[in-house]
Give the backbone structure.
Amino acid sequence: MTALAAGSTSELAEFNLWWALAKAGLALAVLLPVAVWMTRFYAVKSSGLWTGLRHGGVVRVLDVVPLGPQRSLAVVAVAGRVLVVASTPQSVSVLLEIDDPAEVSQLLAGAGVAGNLFSDLVRGALTRWSRRERDEADNEG
């Protein structure tokens, strides 16, 4: 009788071990995808891309490029105007306003869509801005 009891005790302990491993595996299978989803959700939300994907607001972040620790360059749409904005921990500065109607409509249409190269858009806006500044200086002098 004691041999039978000893056998069932080891079988019961083995069953409990497998049951504990199955519960741990099930918990990992549920919690790991939730943790990955939450990480991605908050990364997108905190990066500013979340607001660029949301339509209908007064302010939309169309694109953001990090320049270094806590420094970034952003294209922002505010009430129909498109601004290039630089931000640091101490300040936010408007670098220029993109006022070319064709480029404004292209930026607003491409907000949140991959394929628009931010650097090309900013380079074009800066080139037009510097050309306008040079033309104004030539007209004054």
